[in-house]
Amino acid sequence: MAETKHERPAPDGPAERAAVLYERASEARDAGDLDRALELLAQAVAEDPTEAGLHAVAFHWCDEGGRASKAEQALRDGIEHAEDWTPFAVLLACRCHDTGRLEESETLCRRAIDAEPARPEAYSILGSTLLAAGRADEAERLLRRGLEADPTYAELHLNLAATLRALGRPAEALASARQAVRLDPESLPCRMGLQRLLAEAGEDAD
Is the separation of the CB atoms in 20 and 8 below 8 Å? Predict the structure, then answer.
């Protein structure tokens, strides 16, 4: 009996087509053609818009390529379409905070917290945003809520230290900064935050 040969079928599902397009996009990027890579990646996203990984790649490629507006749009697309969208909301909130768009940063953080109450980054950015908006009391409450969710997240302690400093409670601020460094001794922001508070208190570095 003659052996029947089976040809490999062409990818016909959205995920399969997206995977092929992503491979081609990666090849174009490796060849130095970022425009073509982003064009193919956009096609991959259109095929499988709920795949968070594709939106994440689009963000990172645009960000690394110095295309800030496209990087931000990739985050917005991830929020709108990806099944796992909260990381994109947190990233966009951070960018909004850094560029002074505090109201949008707050909205994004609160939305992420509502969807995923145990995500410490959202509390951390929200606390920093509220502090920047002159709402230190509210920032303290939110940061402490974040620490209830994850007491091991060093950045929460660091931002709480900055908040307590703004509230005129230097001893508590110093204790929070020390805890941040204990949790993440390699973090430059944590070490610098502690050094600043120690200098203000007239103490030597630990």
Answer: no
